[in-house]
Amino acid sequence: MSSSPNDAERPEGAAPLIPDGLDAVLVLLRHGQTQFIVEKRFQGQMEAPLSSLGERQAELAGARLARPHAAPALPIPDTAPFAIVHSPLSRALRGAEIVAAAMTAAGRVTPPLRADAGFLEIGQGEWEGLRDAEIEARFGDSLAAWRRWPTRFYAPGGESLEQVRARVDGSLAVLLAEMADGMPRGTMDRHQVLGYSDAAQQSPRWSLIVGHGGVFRVVVCALLGLPADHFWNFDFGLAAITVVEIRAGRAVLRAMNLDEHLGLGEGSASTDSSTERNQSGAL
Q1: Residues 58-82: pLDDT tens digits?
Q2: Which of 46, 164, 236, 250 would bridge with 213, disulfide CB 3.0–4.6 Å?
Q3: Residues 6+ apart with CB under 8 A from 127
Q4: Given this model, what pLDDT does residue 273 score?
Q5: 173 membership: H or E segment, kind and range
Q6: Is the peptide bond before 204 cis (omega within 30 degrees of 0)?
Q7: CA–CA separation, 249 vs 185, rounded Å?
Q8: Burial class (CB in 10 A: 0-12, 13-18, 19+), 226
Q9: In this predicted model, what pLDDT tens digit does every residue of 149-178 receive, in sequence order?
Q10: In angstroms, rounded to a whole number, what is the distance separating the alpha carbons of residues 160 and 251?
Q11: What distance in Å separates the CA atoms of residue 212 and residue 86, rounded to the nearest whole number?
Q12: Is the pLDDT of residue 191 over 50?
């Protein structure tokens, strides 16, 4: 006969960096289009300002996040965010500023923006600033290896996924601990299937992270307790919204890469550009 479950036990599948019993929601927003993306350059940790389209994409994302329960509703509490954290790079900072302004305009109280170097884009060393064709010509072998085996190969002079995972884990652990502080512990003894509800459940805190496609792949792996081998299993479009709900300490991927707010259909120039870039291995 199996023993009775104990709420103090960490649920199976929960990542060690998530506090036991935490109920929370993390929203990931990738920055909009940049001038480097227009020019087909690898960005990494280089500064690349948003293009005019990138600014507009951030505005549309901000309007969507300011009214999360407008149809079709996002799986985000209809409350002010607990924290708005962003990569220190200007493209993420500008995106966070635009989103915060949209929330303020909608009457929501927004916390001060907070830069966190743990969410910097993955450093791409000697590839940064170069165009796709030039990297193919000069670093074809290492680029091919990066696309196939990202845990074993990376850009010359760049960061390994092991290094990135260490800084991501540290930043996530701090943010999640702050979100858990002073909040009641959640329980696994409630509905775990969508379509059912627990009327008495308290609305959890939620935080927004504005960052980059490459580092968000690492963030999702970290939250879901997956090894870095799954890096290329996730994708993040420009100004797209991803939602990770944490239920009593276990992360659940609720929404991935939502971009309907951009008004972009299949085959649009911006959608095609994002897909092509992700397939190239560019960050």
Answers
A1: 999 999 999 999 999 999 999 999 9
A2: 236
A3: 42, 44, 135, 139, 143, 155, 156, 158
A4: 55
A5: helix 161-180
A6: no
A7: 9
A8: middle
A9: 999 999 999 999 999 999 999 999 999 999
A10: 25
A11: 9
A12: yes
Element (H, E) at 250: strand 250-258
Tokens of residue 128, six digits: 């940064």
- DSSP letters, 45-65, are TS---B-HHHHHHHHHHHHHH
Beta-bridged to residue 83, according to DSSP, are: 207
Average pLDDT over residues 225-249: 97
Domains and CATH numbers, the chain: 24-194+206-280 (3.40.50.1240)
Kindly tell me if the per-residue pLDDT of 5 is higher than 50.
Answer: no
Say how far apart CA 228 and CA 45 lie, in whole Å: 20
- CB neighbourhood size of 112 (10 A): 7
DSSP assignment string, 123-172: P-GGGTT-BHHHHHHHHHHHHHHHHH-TTT---TTS--HHHHHHHHHHHH
Q: Name the strands in the sheet holding 113-115, side by side, starting at the edge strand that comes first in the sequence.
A: 113-115, 83-86, 205-211, 24-30, 241-247, 250-258
> What is the spatial distance between Cα 94 and Cα 101, in angstroms, rounded to a whole number?
11
Query: Which residues are registered as beta bridge partners of 206?
Result: 25
Write out the DSSP string of 59-126. HHHHHHHHSTTSSSPPSS-SS--SEEEE-SSHHHHHHHHHHHHHHHHTT---PPEEE-GGGPPPP-GG
Least confident of 18-32, 92-106, 133-147, 263-277: 263-277
